[in-house]
Specification:
The complex is a heterodimer of chains A (426) and B (252). Chain A is an all-alpha fold and 426 residues long. Chain A has helices at 3-30, 33-53, 56-93, 99-103, 116-147, 153-167, 170-207, 220-226, 236-249, 256-266, 276-301, 304-312, 317-328, 330-346, 349-352, 374-384, 388-425, and strands spanning 106-107, 112-113, 217-219, 253-255. In chain A, helix 6 (153-167) crosses helix 11 (276-301) and helix 16 runs antiparallel to helix 17 (388-425). The longest helix of chain A is centred in the first third of the chain and has 38 residues, at 56-93. Chain B has 252 residues and is of the alpha/beta class. Helices cover 35% and strands 27% of the residues of chain B. Chain B has helices spanning 44-50, 81-86, 102-112, 118-131, 135-138, 151-163, 181-194, 207-213, 231-236, 241-247, and strands at residues 4-15, 18-29, 33-37, 61-69, 72-73, 88-91, 169-173, 199-203, 216-221, 224-230. In chain B, strand 4 and strand 5 (72-73) form a beta hairpin. The two termini of chain B are 29 Å apart. The chains are: A mainly alpha (426), B alpha/beta (252). Chains A and B meet through helix 12 and helix 13 of A and helix 2, strand 6, helix 3 and helix 6 of B.
Chain lengths: 426, 252
């Protein structure tokens, strides 16, 4: 066989194989797999006989167009799958989809009611995430494209780190968030605040003229009395704890160290526990590469001419970045933010240990609140339901809402990105 | 010849391992138009960009020799590049207005230099646009985006923008190469009017243009300055065979 013919043969064989596989996948949606396989086998077996019937010209044209046909068909199959997927989910969930579903909390052990807290939680999560992640990502992208030279070791190292970050599994981010934000940072903040408070407690004792300092001992009741004066507002928790201590120790005298260690034992974590803040920061880390890459792309699309014009007018580099580069890449920064949000809204693993709550009808009120989230809610509905049949429509409806949310965000990002590209080509 | 505004001595420029300018020595006269001609890649644009240190922005550029403007070496370590660039206007090959209003385009430079007063800015904008011979065309639409102007108008806005910082030198890098003949004629007329007030250096591909607008012409070839003389001399009796071949159109 001549080289050319061999290439053609390989192409034809590959095309046929692809066509066969695509057809099989398509049929397998409607038929049992063995029936689909049978149809394919029949077609393949019959093909050589049917093939001869065409004229030489037709055969040539057909084989020329074979690959276009196959690749087109394969692409179409993806679209068909997505459409099928969406319609399927919509049909199974439609009985539950309504305004009240969107705007009421779940009830009856998650077998009735809506998903309002999950929607609000998701929204708050992505807002805090964007506020933390987008500025950091944008500044990093500016450093990489504007300041660092392509050959610099630092820039290469940052790029390597960003790429690595993009490849880390989401659950690892979750564990990192638990270990770093909650276990280390949050706990440190708590310890710091607690130590501060104990110092205040000591100074309060001194100010109250109490002999209760150093190694001296006092009855718990006397100590409590210190907190009831004018200067002692804001000590409600300690007063309550001292009441408990008084019940335990009665008239016995205690030392400062004893009281402090009792407070320590009673201490409740404030920052050192799962919360929407830590979940959002974990998510921000996860989505950082998305932001950096799209902002970088946008910055590179700002024409070099414009920077030079600005520099030639005596603007500093920083002025040029502020007045020319950032305004020119605003759509790109926005695209990055939206892509990050859509990625973040769809991830569950990072928030699993860092703040998402199983069931929490109250909306989050502070950065330290836990929250419900759509993706996690789907997971909970799937695995923790008390009544699987009753939960199913809810599950599909929730999935549909989440999919619509991420699709809408993605389409917005694609639209903005196409505008950036159009400008690049101008 | 008038007193030189710019003295360049033994200037060499390397891009990485490639040498783009070889030992350029030239004195450029004040308040005259000097044209740089030569085939593509001969280094004339690169040379122009050494005069306001625009090449500093490119990675891996190495420069030796000296460039003195008003007897100050601009590559001296004590020279503030930003301040240097304020004294030197630059007009680029492709018109590159900022995607802002016409007014903000012109006011960009003055604002960079700390002028905030609206009245003063208004005055500078009007004066600059008048100097660039485009005031009458745009005076009623200063708030419109400069991107909506025609190519020729955009280029004149860019010239006005570079005049707004009140430079003494104007660098023009093929300012008319992307324009139609009528816009080109307007730009050339403008250069003629501006030369009383500015020292103008223009890179051009168009030999007729060099002949029409310039007082002096420098011919570059393969990164070397081949010949520099009065424009009339270069075009009528050049001293170098290469120059003659180029200006008569035998290569390039």
């Amino acid at each position: 066989m001549a080289m050319k013919e061999r290439i053609r043969f390989t192409f034809a064989a590959a095309s046929l194989l692809l066509l066969g596989v695509s057809l099989f996948l398509l049929l397998a949606v409607f038929l049992p797999w063995y029936a689909a396989l049978g149809v394919i086998t029949a077609v393949v077996a019959a093909a050589p006989f049917g093939w001869r019937r065409f004229s030489l010209d037709t055969r040539r044209k057909l084989s020329e167009n074979m690959f276009i046909l196959v690749s087109g068909a394969t692409a179409l199959i993806i679209v068909v799958f997505v459409a099928y997927f969406l319609v399927h989910i919509f049909l199974l969930g439609q009985s539950q989809l309504s305004w009240s579903f969107l705007f009421s909390p779940p009830t009856e052990g998650l077998t009735e009611g809506g998903i309002f807290p999950a929607i609000v939680g998701t929204a708050l999560l992505v807002i805090i995430m964007s506020l933390a992640g987008v500025p950091v990502g944008t500044i990093t992208a500016i450093y990489l494209t504007e300041y660092a030279s392509n050959t610099s070791v630092i820039a290469r190292f940052i790029r390597f780190a960003v790429n690595t970050l993009a490849g880390v599994p989401a659950i690892v981010f979750g564990l990192f968030g638990l270990g770093f934000f909650i276990g280390t940072l949050g706990r440190q903040m708590d310890t710091f605040a607690f130590d501060q408070r104990m110092d205040d407690f000591q100074s309060l004792a001194v100010a109250a003229g109490s002999p209760f300092t150093g190694d001296s001992r006092a009855r718990v009741e006397e100590i409590r009395a210190m907190f009831l004066g004018d200067d002692a507002t804001g000590w409600r928790a300690e007063v309550e704890q001292l009441r408990i201590l008084q019940e335990l120790r009665g008239e016995e005298e205690v030392t400062v160290a004893e009281v402090t260690s009792f407070f320590t034992a009673q201490q409740r974590p404030h920052w050192g526990q799962p919360s929407i803040l830590w979940a959002a920061l974990t998510m921000a880390l996860l989505t950082l590469p998305v932001v950096i890459v799209s902002v970088e792309e946008a910055i590179k699309s700002v024409p070099r001419d414009l920077r030079e014009a600005s520099m030639a007018l005596g603007a500093t580099k920083w002025k040029t970045i502020r007045s020319v580069v950032i305004p020119g890449s605003m759509t790109g920064i926005l695209t990055g933010a939206i892509l990050a949000v859509s990625r973040g809204a769809g991830e569950v693993a990072p928030i699993l240990f860092t703040g998402a709550a199983y069931y929490l009808p109250d909306l989050p009120t502070a950065l330290t609140s836990q929250f419900m989230e759509l993706g996690y809610h789907i997971y909970v509905l799937t695995t923790q339901s008390t009544d699987v049949e009753a939960t199913k429509p809810l599950l599909y409806a929730t999935t549909f809402v989440l999919l619509m949310l991420t699709f809408t965000l993605n389409f917005t990002a694609i639209f903005l990105r196409s505008r950036v590209r159009a400008r690049m080509l101008r | 010849m008038k007193a030189p505004k710019i003295r360049v001595e033994n200037l060499n420029l390397h891009y990485g391992s490639k040498q783009a300018l070889h030992d350029i020595t030239i004195d450029l006269p004040e308040h005259r138009v000097t044209a740089f001609i030569g085939p593509s890649g001969c280094g004339k644009s690169t040379f122009l960009r050494t005069l306001n240190r625009m090449n500093d922005l490119i990675d891996g550029v190495r420069i030796t020799g000296s460039v003195k403007i008003d007897d100050v070496d601009i590559y001296d370590r004590t020279v503030d590049v930003v301040r240097l660039r304020k004294r030197i206007g630059m007009v680029f090959q492709k018109s590159n207005p900022f995607p802002k209003s016409i007014y903000d385009n012109i006011a960009y430079g003055p604002r960079v230099n700390g002028i905030r007063d609206r009245g003063a800015l208004d005055e500078i904008v009007e004066e600059s646009l008048k100097q660039a011979a485009i005031w009458d065309e745009v005076k009623d639409r200063l708030d419109e985006s400069a991107m909506r102007l025609s190519g020729g108008q955009q280029q004149r806005v860019c010239i006005a923008r570079s005049l707004a910082v009140n430079p003494d030198i104007l660098l023009m890098d093929e300012p008319a190469s992307a324009l139609d003949p009528i816009s080109t004629a307007k730009i050339e007329e403008l250069i003629f009017e501006l030369k009383d007030r500015y020292t103008i250096l223009i890179v051009t591909h168009n030999m007729q243009q060099a002949a029409r607008v310039s007082d002096y012409t420098a011919f570059f070839y393969l990164g070397e300055l081949v010949e520099f003389d009065k424009t009339r001399t270069i075009f009528t009796k050049p001293g170098n065979g290469k120059t003659e071949e180029y200006v008569t159109g035998r290569f390039g």
